[in-house]
Amino acid sequence: MQTCVRALLSVILLFSSQSLAFTSGHMTLASGKRRSTKRFVRTVSSPTPSTTPTPTTPSSSYYVTCVQGFEQTLKNELSTIIPEAVITLCSSGVEFTPSTPSPVPAYKVLLYSRVAIRVMELIASSDQDNPLSSSADLHNFVYKNVDAVKLLSNNDSLLSLSVRCTLPTNRNRIPKSLAHSHFSALSVKNALVDKFRDSNPNDPETRPSVELLDTDVPLTLAISANDMNDSCNARLFRSLSSTSLHKRGYRSNLPIHKAALKETVAAGLLLEAGFHLLVADSKSTNAPCALLDPFTGSATFLIEAAMICADVAPFLLREKSNEITPRFLKWDGADTDSWNQLYAEAKMKSQAGRRYLSLRKDQFILSGTDNISSDLARQTVAKAGFSESIDIENCAFEDWHCEDLVVEDRTIICCNPPWNIRLREVNPDDEENHERMFASLGVWLKSINKRVECWNLHPPSSAYGAMKLAKSRSFTFSTSNLKLRWLQYYLR
Description:
This protein has a seven-stranded mixed sheet with strand order 2-3-1-4-9-8-7. Strands 12-11-10-13-14-16-15 form a seven-stranded mixed sheet. The chain has a two-stranded antiparallel ribbon with strand order 5-6. The termini are far apart. The protein has helices at residues 2-14, 71-81, 104-112, 135-145, 148-152, 181-199, 263-272, 275-285, 300-310, 336-359, 374-384, 421-426, 433-446; strands spanning 62-65, 86-90, 93-97, 118-125, 153-154, 157-158, 161-166, 217-225, 232-239, 289-293, 364-369, 390-393, 411-415, 452-458, 473-479, 482-491. By secondary structure, the protein is α/β, with parallel strands linked by helices. Helix 4 packs parallel to helix 6, helix 7 crosses helix 9 (300-310) and helix 9 crosses helix 10 (336-359). It contains 13 helices and 16 strands. 32% of the residues lie in helices and 19% in strands.
């Protein structure tokens, strides 16, 4: 009888995994439908996410993070990259479980995702029935649940580690002793080192090193609040990349525009605008399409658009900044042959796609203008390897005559107008400059005199009303403590 009871309890505990959340709060998803027209129409669905992730086991569960608001965008993207996996929406990311215990689906996400910031494997999760109340509890949790030797060594070689910690937005909901990210991360590191030493009693001085940059095993501790104010839950992950995936590599060793969009944000906004669907339609029908950017800045929109057109896997560009060496291949259980095959396939597709794009410049029109940072834009475009495919002009948007570039019903205009930092650089003493600039933008857009689709990035400001345009759809996301809106306008 006791054996049966213990078996029943084991089954109950196996399926009582808690939901994954790095930060508290609700995510804002895109909503609304596009108007019915006779032109090429792209639809973006945004179903209501499940509030409780599916139960997972540490050996086959991954968490992919993104900018808050892009959760559904990321899920849609991953559904095409790893269609066989079970994908669940979570806060600031998605969780996925491969159909078979294999790291290959995670390798594919690392290579091809344009929206993901980090791809992380779940190593250990605290039990709901045994929450953490102190740093000692955290130490014991890591010590008992993580095989430090397997995690931090490869045959006879030691692997370096780093530990970062994420906390819920409301830190008052977790114990004070665990509410400091630095000290909680230190507790994890100490527990791993203690376990490693205790596992090698004949050589107690041997221990893994800590490397903050280019580490072999980048760990993330995610602490989340529970229903009890005197305790919390925790999950420990290891990331497949030592740096954020928004760092594509084409900005390395170049000046960075003060108000430049993160690459993952720009790519996510293009996916929300349906640009990838327009490109796919053009490839199947040979009909031309265009993406225009009247506020080019450092050309992030245009470069990410070119990568979509050429089917360039974002991870490949990290080679330009010497970040391509995958440290995860040193891990126990890494599938080196599968990674090498996936990487070679991605590189072949990229090379073929770049040649195709350079020969089809009249079919895939990518152009922008900027009267302040056009030189920086051209440098960045060259670093990304798209100088033959992207045209940058040097003039203010009011003086940009782009009518010949517009393909009626098949053109998307992406606008990230100067605001905040960039606007103050133009004329810091003019309080009405903000509203006047948006009024000019509205006039310029209406002057195109062709049916086009425009998407504008709206800052938290009422000055956008000066454009006097009626929006068709709104997508909201949060970055740098700001809530921004990506608004769609149909111009006829």
